[in-house]
Structures are given as structure tokens and as C-alpha cells.
Specification:
Blueprint lengths: L10 H18 L7 E2 L1 H8 L3 H14 L2 E4 L3 E4 L4 H25 L2 H15 L14 H15 L5 H25 L5 H13 L3 H23 L6
Antiparallel strand pairs: 1-3, 2-3
Helix pairs in contact: 1-3, 4-7, 4-9, 5-6, 5-8, 7-9, 8-9
Length: about 230
Amino acid sequence: MADVEEGQASGTSLARIAYQRIRGDILEGALKPDEKLKIHALRERYGAGASPLREALSQLTADGLVTRAEKRGFRVAPADTVGLDELVEARCWVEGDALRASMARGGAKWEHAIVIAIYELARTPRSIGDGEFRANPEWERLHKRFHMALISGCGNRIVLDLCDQLYDRAVRYRSLSIARSFARRDVVQEHRELADTALNRDVEKAVALLQAHYQRTAHLLSDADRPPEQK
């Protein structure tokens, strides 16, 4: 694919496009953990110039999705069980407090956002495959909207931005293992119970359900990646 002409868009726009495309491939698992990200290969893959690609990779490094080593270039960030455990712990801490604040501060707008989000998520299939798992992009979009709606009443934009980033990191782990683990739980019921409890302002139960939801995901994904003789 030929490089995008620099004159067609600003350098910032080109870097943003490259950032979104590389980020999408990392989150979906098309670019594998620890895979080396060579600029010349990325130019062929994405049709972008070297400067926008380096800017995009630097942003992805700040996001925690790419690593950079001195004289060794860029790589996709690793996705091991230690990283997953730390990610889940961080989400439980941060989103647990954000959910508490949302239930204390959230009004009708917050409640309405949850009601709409759970309704649309519950009626959307998670897989679009016949006989095998194929991720439904619309489900993923609605899933993120639901989880962000739960904490949207906290009133702290910095916390919401952090939760947004943590969610995206979690998507990558699910993408790597979901085909083997998604049928082993009733996520529709989990989401409905979480929504109902939050709307009822049952703070301790809602936070416990949210944390158990994330911990269950971590357990299933770790189990899916474990060799059969260790299960």
C-alpha cells in the first residue's frame, strides 16, 4: 500500500489515523503480544509515513499497549497472567470507588444512561459466528458503553479517562482467549444484576458484583491459557 500523501492531511491527523489502526489491531489480537513493530513493515501494512507511525507508537507506549527498549525499537506490550492480575486489581480499585461515587452523586441522567446501556447490550449477540466464536464489534462497543455508564456519575473526568484506558487494556486479554472462555458464563445475567443493584443504590453489593465480574473474567482467561494438564 502506498504511503498516504503528507499533503492530504496534517501530520497530527495522519498520526491519529495510524494510532487508531495500530491500536485496533493490538486490541483485537491481530498484532500479538511481544511482536516487534518495525517501521518499514508498518509502512507497508498501514500506508503511513515513518513520522506519523513513530508518533502513533509513542502514544501507544504512553497508553501501555506498546513498549520501547533502547536500541531495540517498539514491541507490542506483553500480555501475561501477571499483567492480567495487576490489571484486574487496578480496575477493581479504581472502578469500585468510581461506582461508589456514582451511586452517591448520580441523578436521573446517570440512571437513564444505565437503563439504555443495559437494554441495548442485553439484546445484542456477543458472537456473530455460526458454530464458532466470532467477536461482534457492536457488542464490544455496547459493553464498553455499559461499564462506562455505571461509573459516569462519579463526576471526575480524570478517573473516567483512566477507566477508559484500563477497559481497553482488558479488551486485549479477552481478544486473545475469548473464543475458548466466552461460553462458560452467563454475562447477560451478570450485567443485568449489576445494573439493577447499582440503580437500587445498594452500594456494597454493587461494588462486590463489579469486582467479582472482573475477577471471574480474569480467572476464566487465565484458565483458558493454561495447558490442559494444569487445569
